Structures are given as C-alpha cells and as structure tokens.
Amino acid sequence: MIFRFASFLVFAVGLLQSSRADLIFDLRPAEITAGGRGYVDIYVSSFQPPNTSVESFHSVAGFNFQLKIKPQPNSLGQMPGGELIFQDTFAKNDPSSISRQTNSEQFMPNYIFASKADPDIFVASTEVGGDILNGADTTRDISAVRVGAMPLLMARVELAQRQPPQAAGDVYQIELVAAHTEFFDADINAVPLDFSRSSFALTTVTAVPEPSWVGLCWLALCSLALRRRRGQTQFSATSQ
User: Fold this and answer.
1) Across all residues in the chain, what is the average pLDDT?
2) How much is the pLDDT for 96?
3) Which has more confidence, 231 or 126?
4) Shortest CA distance to 81 belongs to which of 165, 161, 160?
C-alpha cells in the first residue's frame, strides 16, 4: 500500500512539473528597409498546458532582460552584407530623438505594466557594438500584475540598419539571452521562464532596389520623346 501511494505521489509530482505554466515569449517578425529604422515587439504570456480548463497565470512585478542580434543566412545562403544594431541607450531627457531607444511601450494599453509604469524606472541600454541591448522595468510600487494566456507587450525595441545589405536581403535572429533574463513577483521571487516554448521570429532587411537597365532605357526614351515634342512645338511657333 505504501509503495502504491509513493508511486502515485511521484507520478503526480511529475505531472505537475511537466504541465507547469512557465512564462513564454513571442518576438514578432519585422522588416526594415536598407539604411532605415524600425522596431520589434516582444510579448509575454503564461503557457497554457493542454487539456486544462483553468487559465494558468503568474504574478509579475518586474523584469530585466538581454537581447542579442545574431546574423543568419538569407534565402540564397548569404550572410548579411550590412549591419543591424539596436538604437542608442534610452535617455529620459531626450525622448524625441529618433536615434535612441524610447519608452513608448509604457504608454500602450497592452503593455505589461500599462497602468503602473514609471519612466524613471525604465531602462534600455546598448553595449559597445550595438548588437546587445539590456532592458528592465518594474511597477511603480512593486505591486504585481497578472500575466495569463493573453500575450502582453513586454518591450518595443528600436533598431537601425547600417551599410548596404545583400541584394536578396539580410536576415537576423533577435533572441533573449536566458542567462540575463529574469522575471520576479512582488516578493522578489523568481518567476519560471520557458525559452524552449518561446518564439523568436526572424527580422529581415530588404535591399533598396537599384534602377534596372530596362528602367534606365525607359527614362531615356521618355526624355527623348519630351525633347522631340518641345522641338516640334518651337518649330510650329517659328513657322507662324
């Protein structure tokens, strides 16, 4: 009897662990034009174990994270010809600069701390080279918010592209660095995270198409026709 009970207990604990509702992340795909600027949005939610009718959720009061840009081969197997970087460190006194990170997410209704955000707490700083970004935020009073099945915006990250990309475009993977990403509750206890179930979509940089020979020929023909028409007009005016 004791053996059976112990076996059932081990099974139950294993089942609970396998269906634990850790936080998962969803980095949405983005497309940036050559030499341009753009952003990617990162969402967070609680994983919902299959075949459960009760919503799983976590209480979150703050987080810190690190993002890294990783070059990837494009459809032709080419590595990026240009460079994708995170925009400069957020500065509270320079919120209008287009070359810096912003705290625009704090004012969005779907932001994780929408009603409890404080610009004085918000952090978004880049490291030398521009391919690493460190971010952090907490609620004003360190009170927790509920994170359930509905994805909430965790960060809007500003990007900039430098140097001409490949003709077929450049491709990058932007990933959360697990070792430097933490969520915590109101008691500063760690909230479990699951990176294996998270989704990190690719970010692409499209090349600005250069004028083709066909396009140049068409422009030349249009210019020639315009000159000919002007010449005929001037000739008619002179003959009158």
Assistant:
1) 83
2) 60
3) 126
4) 165
